[in-house]
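Worked example

This section walks through a single chain of length 72. The input is the sequence exactly as stored; nothing has been trimmed or padded.
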Amino acid sequence: MGRPKREDGRNARTVANNKYNTSVYDRLAVNVNKGERERLKEYAAGNGESVNGLINRLLAAEVPGFDPIKEK
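Given that input, the structure is written out below as tokens.
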């Protein structure tokens, strides 16, 4: 059995997570050529990180004062 749905049919946990993420993070969309997403995922996984972690690490190395998010 799943969690009970809200009256509007949405999952309460998802709604709460989305509200938190919107209040704490800015989102960026990164476009890459077809096939590169999978290659980036494999590269990041080979280094024990997510694609998001990879991008944050690279930005921290290149942009003075950039404060990367800490992955859980």
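What to look for: DSSP finds three helices and no strands in the chain.
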